[in-house]
Amino acid sequence: MKSPRSILIVKLSSIGDVVMSMPVARALKQAYPESRVSWLVEGPARPLVEACPYVDQVLEFPKAHGLAQIKAGQWLSVASQARAFVRGLRRERFDVAMDLQGLLRSGVLTWLSGASRRIGRQDAREGGHLFINERVAPSSPRTRAAQQYMDLLRPLGLHEADPSLFVPVSTEDEAAATRYLEAELGAPGERFAALAMSTTFYHKHWPEEQVAGLVDRLFEDYGLRSVMLGSAKDLDSQRRVAQLARHAPVLAAGATSLTEAAAVMGRAEMVVAVDTGLLWIALAVRAPLVGIFGPTTYEHLADEAAEIACKPFPCAPCLRSATCEDRDCMRALSVDDAMAAVGRVMARTSTPQPVAVQG
């Protein structure tokens, strides 16, 4: 098959999904080193794609800006900018466009790219499959998440590409992580756990009192300070956790970029995360990991190096259609349950035995 001159990856969000999709960019660039690989993404995940060495061009879909203009009633401006955006896409003359999102908006954008070959999932939601002309049958839900994206390479003849996750962490990211950790922990080489307890989906949050209990147990059982990662909007929640905890965590919300957070997690003795983008970044940097799950599925993590803490409820996974009063499955998951998973990871990674820390 003739190598495509220009390839477009359409994976708009979220951060975790973008991390899972990065092996696709690597496989394309390795198979077609002379091809131009572009990636269409929304703003929050853009820094990850910009850092990816296998992507030649990053195109941003201005979703947030467009929605703000619509709310302001600026319809003519929206229409003008949409036309300009589509013209810009078509100027790239893509030979292949790959819809890794599998939704209506990503299917439409794949079609608007003008690519003659438009590859996507057969079961794309919201009618997104109607805009795809090469449809790939879905894998089993238990298939490793990254592999489900890699399966979309089959129409291009790429059947054995490496699905292993990665996050591009630069020497500058490593240096920034070093400076931050030494300033906050007070000593080089201080042992710590990284916690990622916030996400944009409220029902996936573990209650703050349980998070505070985990902070205390990590310190008292293993001598690990907790560094709480997240975006600036998570700072209020982290402050409430700090007020509840006996052992003060480091509140790192908004203090690191995504790639700097990856460098921090790469140095952590343990990462504990809810179902959020930082969980996937932790996997990509091979950090010892406990995932805390409730309303979302974790079948696609079956082949990943992570321990799962979860209290199965008959209504799970409910995703965004919760029927409970307030995160019943997450509230049912105790600190002891989470610490049992921590213990399994510690044993597997040959970490020193727990130490008794008083106070």
Q: What key phrases describe this protein's structure?
A:
globular; 13 helices; 39% helix; 359 residues; 6-stranded parallel β-sheet; single chain; disordered C terminus
Concise description?
The chain has 359 residues and is an alpha/beta fold.
List the secondary-structure elements in sequence, H or E.
EHEHEHHEHEEHHEHEHEHEHEEHH
> Could you give a short account of the major beta sheet?
6 strands, parallel
| Strand order of the biggest β-sheet | 3-2-1-4-5-6
Low-confidence stretches: 351-359
How widely separated are the two ends?
67 Å
Q: What coarse outline follows from CA principal-axis ratios?
A: globular
Q: Strand-residue fraction? A: 5-15%
Tally the helices: 13
Broad structural category: alpha/beta
According to DSSP, the number of beta strands is: 12
- Taking all Cα atoms into account, the compactness measure Rg is 21 Å
Rounded mean pLDDT is 89
Oligomer: single chain
Q: Determine the fraction of residues in helical runs and give it as a percent range.
A: 25-40%
Please describe what this structure looks like.
There is one protein chain. This protein has 359 residues and is α/β, with parallel strands linked by helices. It has helices at residues 15-31, 46-51, 63-71, 75-91, 104-112, 145-150, 171-185, 208-222, 235-244, 258-267, 277-284, 328-332, 335-348, and strands at residues 6-10, 36-41, 57-60, 96-99, 117-121, 134-136, 192-196, 225-228, 250-251, 270-274, 289-293, 307-310. The strands form two sheets. Strands 3-2-1-4-5-6 form a six-stranded parallel sheet, sandwiched between helices. It has a six-stranded parallel sheet with strand order 9-8-7-10-11-12, sandwiched between helices. The chain is globular, with a radius of gyration of 21 Å.
